[in-house]
Amino acid sequence: QDLQIISTDENQVFVAVQEWYQTDTYNLYQSDPQGVYYSILLENVRSTKQPEENVLIDILEVRGVKGVFLANQKIDGKVTTLITYNKGRDWDFLNPPDIDMNGKPTNCKPPDCYLHLHLRWADNPYVSGTVHTKDTAPGLIMGAGNLGSQLVEYKEEMYITSDCGNTWRQVFEEEHHILYLDHGGVIVAIKDTSIPLKILKFSIDEGQTWSTHNFTSTSVFVDGLLSEPGDETLVMTVFGHISYRSDWELVKVDFRPSFPRECTDDDYESWELTNLQGDRCIMGQQRSFRKRKISSWCIKGRSFTSALTSKVCECVNSDFLCDYGFERSAPLKSQSSKCFADFWFNPEAPPEDCVLGQAYTSSTGYRKVVSNVCEGGVDLQQNLAQHMCPLIAPKGLQISIREESLAVKPGEDITFIVRQEQGDILNTKYQVDLGDGFKAIYVNLTMTGEPIRHRYENPGIYRVSVKAENVAGHDEAVVFIQVNSPLQALNLEVVPVVGRNQEVNLTAIILPKNPNLTVFYWWIGNTLQPLLTLDNFLVTKFAETGDVRVTVQASCGSSMLQDSKVVRVFDHFHVLPLKFTKHLDMYNPDIPEWRQDIGRVVTRLLAKDTNIPEETLMTVVKPGLPTTADLHVLLPANQPKRKRSVTSDKRIAAIKQALNAHNISFFLRGGYWVLVTLADSGSDSRRIGGGSGYWAIVVLFVICLVAVGAFILYKKLPGRNVYAQMHNEKEQEMTSPVNHSEDTQNIIQG
């Protein structure tokens, strides 16, 4: 689920990995020297989520002594602190002190009671975290925690060790901010509290005794501690504020006058690094350090070095950890835990890059800890078995696109990359089929990394396959490529007037027609969540009256278009079906602009002849053939909503009268006269409304072509640009007189 890098020191990577079953813990892994193969070191290390999705892992590298780490492990809700001296090969609990800071017995005895520390980083960069270490003060660790069977969040007693975690002492009952001066020769502590302070504590004997110092006459809220540059410095600064409204107060504290002289060789003593079992050989060497004697009152100074001697040891079992694919049976035990192969790992299996004819060695399950310098002695890596690389069947074949897009345009270059995770390469043939008739056989295709460049000329969906085959077996990879022409036009077809709670069909007309795998996004009203369809239509209902905006987006490959229409939703209105003679179908280009123009002309002529307000009439020419239309008769804006309307009856009668009197007519380009007549005076219309008891009349209108000729000629589809340029001129021609004597044949040819 997640991966956090802990350390990249000494040619090795430590990572914390949250696996599928974990929520607030991570597993700690360690890499080989190349950083490729990782082995598990410690499971269930506690983690804490911070603001802005930052994650803190409870693991801390102890500065000053290489290979020492502290970690908090969480098992069954209990958090315990562990320490390792050999880069995670062995982990142990922290030994508790026998007495507390007041000299009273702690009554904390293993295995039921240990010392546990909070391993938190401070939010404030100018104060120490809950555990404080320093490179120039090896072995000195000071942290906040508690004694018991587990770590308790609200307990933050302060403990200190000067021998790198072997023995601990309690120094305070509450958490303090810590600052090391003069290579740890002076330890400064200020209480972590929200109340103002004017006293700090300091120790010059590694926390054995503590003195107090009034660093200011007026108490301040402490915001942080700073030391002057250099590990040898004895000058520090406390900064804070007297009140929440005041400026910062900076107080300089100089400890130099407290020391009469600089230290000499006689003022130091040595100490040897050991682990909790008392072993002196750690990471393959015995290391001794020097520190100032408790009785000496002197300054270490700039020339002080803590490292004294080191001696290489003979190798023992603890200098080796489990190799990749192996795990130890008891990771907390420090002695002789054997490494066993995981169920998923076959130690005898050849490596992925094994080439026929070459030799490889199988792992014994162990490898030396990185940075371990031991020599001679035990060698758990010896007696490695030698094997000859067999012919391995190809496995993990993959096809990828360099352009990272599976949708391209016709004629656009596309580059295929073929990779193979496992198996022989030199003796494998690769059969490539690009789906459009191109087929080829390659050798060493995945070794050279040579790309396959291609270009699809025609739209469509192409199945691209690569089959890798040798004597040992075969593998195949397939990818589908969409070749789509960019969308050129999108028009939303929807009846502009609908009844409440009645089904309405929303249709998206796109050009070019029927492109492959076009996705349609539909927004109805003010919703932000669209409906997705692969069909270019959607059937829906409107529950409320009023104007509703419908928007559709069509997405095909890398192109996307949008169209939007407003639908008027009413409780009551009338619909008069219109039917045209079949001759009109010969000149119907079936595009939205043509239908809208015809509808507007019929509506305008009817309104002019009948004196019915044009805004209450709407003629909608339907798409497709045969050409049909609906005339919508709407209630006026101030008309009360009733099931039966006398006003509507009068308007419908007026429309019938106008059509029967042949008053509705207009001219076409080229001198052709179009007459609108009523086909059947005894037919009825239908009424749309929210109530029951619909009444229906079927009224049939016929628009006749008197002369034979072109109604409107559309030379190009989609024709949006050409048609839009001619729109104004054409609209005038459709309502103006023309010369009937013009030669019909010339017009048709034109």
UniProtKB/TrEMBL annotation:
It comes from the Eukaryota. Residues 734-750 have a biased composition (Polar residues). SMART domains: VPS10. InterPro entries: Ig-like_fold (IPR013783), PKD_dom (IPR000601), PKD_dom_sf (IPR035986), Sortilin_C (IPR031777), Sortilin_N (IPR031778), VPS10 (IPR006581), VPS10-sortilin (IPR050310). Keywords: Cell membrane, Cell projection, Cytoplasmic vesicle, Disulfide bond, Endosome, Glycoprotein, Membrane, Postsynaptic cell membrane, Receptor, Repeat, Signal, Synapse, Synaptosome, Transmembrane, Transmembrane helix. Signal peptide: none annotated. The keyword Translocase does not apply. Residues 730-750 are annotated as: Disordered. It is found in: Cell membrane; Cell projection, Dendrite; Cell projection, Dendritic spine; Cytoplasmic vesicle membrane. Residues 430-490 form the PKD domain. The chain crosses the membrane at residues 693-714. It is a single-pass type I membrane protein. Its main location: membrane. SUPFAM superfamilies: Oligoxyloglucan reducing end-specific cellobiohydrolase, PKD domain. The keyword Nucleotide-binding does not apply. One of its GO terms (cellular component) is dendritic spine. Belongs to the VPS10-related sortilin family. SORCS subfamily. This is VPS10 domain-containing receptor SorCS2.
